[in-house]
Design goal:
Low-confidence stretches: 1-16
Order of helices and strands: HHHHHHHHHHHHHHH
Shape: elongated
Structural class: mainly alpha
Length: 261
């Protein structure tokens, strides 16, 4: 999947130019010194012709993301998309998806859904299942935030077909199934997610929740205890510790367990 995406991206872009190098430098600045990157992007926009607008706006959007200025980031990414030629479907898709994620981070789920739907249409034009599968994951997040769980389920069904190697596909499928009380579906989904990313603490937390709701306390304990080990010092470990505290001490083994009978 990933190699196909990378190949298509190379096919749809020209050989590296000075403009590409400038984008690389600006994006590096956006990640380490966003204020400087915003100034650089502003200068770039003031002096560039139409071919450089998309790159400058992408850098601007990335810098605003680092500053948690979500709406400004969203708008910059969409301006970048509009500046990209129509034939470059993959890049337009990626920029729309960036705008959607910025909107979602800013609690603008309706706007995020609009951007993800645009990104999906661009991705379909690019003809890459891996891209449309990943965007379907993002669309599902927005739909869940809007309380449209049935549509979110449909988006995740597509993601499972088109991005089956992404553990987030299966984690979100498990979480949605658990929220809709479909534990029989949630269990195989979370098992697949764990197989793809065994050390992911978010998956470990969800596996424990599904286990406890299914009446499997020992399995829940094991899942949450594994998070304490693999994610020590993180908020995931703190959540796991709170879940274990709510369970209390593990029950004492029965005499038959002590003797191995």
């Amino acid at each position: 999947m990933i190699s196909a995406l990378a190949l298509a991206f190379l096919v749809q872009t020209a050989p590296p130019t000075a403009t590409d190098a400038r984008l690389t430098l600006c994006l590096e600045a956006a990640r380490t010194d966003p204020a400087t990157a915003i100034a650089q992007a502003g200068e770039w926009l003031a002096e560039t012709d139409s071919t450089g607008v998309a790159n400058a706006e992408q850098c601007l959007g990335t810098a605003y993301t680092r500053l948690l200025k979500w709406e400004a980031s969203e708008e910059a990414f969409m301006r970048a998309r509009e500046a990209v030629p129509d034939v470059l479907h993959l890049r337009r898709s990626r920029l729309a998806a960036m705008a959607g994620n910025a909107a979602l981070a800013g609690n603008r789920a309706e706007a995020a859904l609009t951007h993800f739907t645009t990104a999906l249409a661009d991705g379909e034009e690019a003809g890459l299942d891996g891209m449309t599968g990943m965007i379907s994951i993002d669309r599902a997040r927005a739909l869940v935030a809007l309380g449209r769980e049935e549509e979110a389920g449909e988006a995740l069904e597509r993601a499972r077909r088109e991005a089956p190697q992404d553990p987030q596909t299966w984690l979100l499928s498990a979480t949605l199934a658990r929220r809709t009380q479909d534990l029989s579906a949630a269990q195989p989904y979370i098992q697949t997610a764990a197989a793809l990313a065994p050390d992911d603490p978010e998956i470990g937390l969800e596996a424990g929740v599904i286990a406890i709701l299914s009446g499997r306390e020992e399995s829940a304990r094991k899942s949450w205890q594994s998070v304490l080990v693999t994610a020590r010092g993180t908020r995931f470990a703190q959540t796991a510790a709170s879940y274990l505290e709510q369970l209390g001490d593990a029950p004492a083994p029965s005499p038959s367990q002590e003797t191995g009978r």
